[in-house]
Amino acid sequence: MIRFRIYFLALLFIIHCSLATCGPIQKVEPAVPIRVRRQFSMNFGATHQQDEGTDVTAEAIARLWRSKSGTTEVQGSASYNQHFGGFQGDGHDYRLKLKIVFT
Length: 103
Known about the structure:
By secondary structure, this protein is α+β, with helices and mostly antiparallel strands. The chain contains one helix and four strands, in the order αββββ. It has one domain. Strands 1-2-3-4 form a four-stranded antiparallel beta sheet, with no helix packed on it.
């Protein structure tokens, strides 16, 4: 047990001396900008009505860019709608939206 204490204290002393001689750790900025994790939401849905057919929808919404001050951001969304069956027949619709928000 005494040997363990001596080794432990010696290890602490070596670590303390190495930190004291090296000084504080400097934060180094990476040469390549760090990627920012982006969050987006996806919505899916389907509705069916008797004798009118089925509508299927999908939508994705994401914040594409935000200023460093956080006062301006660009949001984008994409949606897809398709109708199956019924009197209207089959059809589809694509939409892309871009929104700029100033706060």
